[in-house]
Design goal:
alpha/beta; Nucleotidyltransferase, domain 5; five-stranded mixed β-sheet; disordered N terminus
Length: 500
């Protein structure tokens, strides 16, 4: 029996971690994932990360060479079904934006930077799909190159998520930079990790868990070494880690360190990862960690499946924010409907029909009044702030920044300052979507008291023409007054608005 083309879609996820870059490609057959290619390379993007200059030149060269190889495998995949995610180093580096521009050229796809909390959500999703669907809470821990994620969840639902600034690459730079393996270096690294972990100790232990699962490179390498040296039959425990630490210390330096089954590049950051792991066991009083193959990239694939099957977690996030900030749902729906009506008429002409544009406008319309929960005065700025800085599962940093620009600019002056640093195309897209949102909000000033007639709209490069049914404007002087005000505001940004 032949499968339809739609039932065999190819999806791809690339995880740009602080230590390693990973790519996974899978075929979606009747709702199930079938992995067809997996690749990973140690890049150590965070090695030598400078607070002023950002990602080091040699690290960028390694990263771009790796991404060029990945890009060859991704050619021809539907852009809607590819997700490229940057984590801690790309969140922190001052030159993140310039690096991402270079990376897009060699990879062929844009890179989305995700928050620590979003990283935690996707890690949990990836791990949960590798485990039995049993009852009870589990704690999932993912030690990365620049951050470590801690998630307590049940089945496929995360209940508590946190991302802390401790990782095997950054801790190597901080405590093992000279390559010396000493009790003092381990003690300092463990103590620093413990200080970070104290912030989650009480709330996490209060919520509790039935079992602990570890994912990604440090966990995999540690689990393998413990078994190879007969320190554990399966799983990771604190007694075995103490014994492993003694073995590591015998090498005196990282250059002389040899561990069965561990590659040289992993050995460079292994002592720091071991120190972080010991601190986790001691602070959270964990008995045992079992290793899972699931990780961020697998979680990203399952998240993509949700979008393909119209089960987008971002829709749930928007609904949750509306509830949390007591949004007037009828008004939000009216504004959304009008915004979509206007969008459909100009999308092609204004070239705002690329992936994500329509969703961004729709979500902005649904969330434009969240700032009223803080204050009416300047609520557009409050809305923008909340959307930019709240944890929004499913949304990348860029998604949230785009939404925030539309929300800040949906009334009063257009957000010209917000788009100054963008490419010409990016700035134009954001301003055009913003204008559509402004018009939709303007037309619904009466909040449902009076019936709103949606105009036809014609869009040109720097001008818009609205046409209402005959007699409508004469009977609605308030709308005319608002349109005149909007005309003046848009003219300040070199846009011309006409209406009849």
């Amino acid at each position: 029996m032949e499968h339809s083309v739609q039932s065999q879609q190819v999806l791809a996820a690339v995880d740009l971690g602080s230590n390693s870059f990973h790519m996974v490609m899978a075929r979606l057959i009747n709702g199930q994932l079938q992995i067809i290619d997996q690749r990973g390379e140690k890049v150590q993007l965070a090695a030598g990360l400078d607070p002023v200059s950002g990602i080091a030149e040699d690290a960028q060269e390694r990263a771009l060479a790796c991404l060029e190889r990945f890009g060859q495998h991704l050619r021809g995949v539907d852009p809607h079904l590819v997700t490229i995610l940057g984590t801690n180093t790309l969140r922190a580096a001052r030159n993140s934006y310039s690096f991402r521009l270079k990376a897009k050229k060699v990879l062929g796809f844009p890179i989305e930077v995700i928050s620590g909390i979003e990283e935690a959500r996707l890690v949990y999703l990836g791990v949960a799909h590798t485990l039995a669907d049993d009852d009870g809470k589990r704690l999932v821990i993912d030690i990365g190159g620049g951050s470590t994620e801690f998630i307590i969840g049940e089945r496929f639902a995360p209940l508590k998520m946190e991302s802390l600034s401790l990782g095997c690459v950054t801790y190597t730079d901080r405590f093992f930079a000279e390559g010396e393996l000493s009790e003092r270096a381990f003690s300092l690294a463990i103590a620093a990790a413990k200080r970070e972990l104290l912030s989650i100790k009480v709330p996490y232990q209060k919520l509790g868990w039935q079992n602990v699962v570890g994912s990604s490179g440090t966990m995999r390498a540690t689990n393998r070494v413990l078994v190879n040296y007969g320190l554990s039959e399966s799983g990771i425990n604190l007694k075995a880690l103490y014994a492993l630490k003694k073995i590591v210390l015998q090498a005196k330096t990282i250059k002389k360190l040899e561990l069965q089954g561990i590659k040289d590049q992993r050995l460079e950051v292994f002592p720091a990862g071991l120190a972080v792991l010991i601190a986790i066991f001691e602070v959270l009083e964990i008995e045992e960690i079992t290793y899972s193959d699931g990780a961020l990239r697998e979680g990203a694939l399952y998240d993509l499946i949700g979008r393909v099957n119209h089960e987008d977690v971002r829709e749930k996030t928007v609904t949750a924010m509306q509830t949390r900030f007591v949004v007037d749902l009828a008004q939000a729906q009216n504004v959304t409907s009008t915004a979509m009506h206007l969008y459909e008429q100009v999308a092609e002409r204004w070239k705002v029909n690329e992936p994500g544009c329509q969703d961004t406008l729709r979500w902005a319309a649904q969330l434009h009044e969240v700032g009223l929960a803080i204050a009416h005065s300047g609520y557009n700025k409050h809305s923008g702030y909340l959307v930019q800085y709240c944890d929004m599962p499913g949304f990348t940093k860029q998604n949230q920044e785009s939404l925030a620009i539309l929300l800040r600019g949906h009334r009063k002056k257009l957000p010209m300052q917000d788009v100054e640093g963008m490419s010409k195309k990016g700035a134009k897209t954001h301003l055009r979507l913003c204008i559509l949102l402004r018009l939709a909000v303007l037309l619904h000033f009466g909040r449902g008291v009076e019936e709103v007639v949606e105009p036809t709209i014609k869009a040109f490069k720097y001008s818009i023409k609205l046409t209402f049914p005959e007699g409508y404007l004469e009977n609605n002087p308030m709308t005319v007054m608002d349109l005149e005000r909007e005309k003046a505001l848009l003219s300040e940004a070199m846009f011309e608005l006409t209406f009849q």
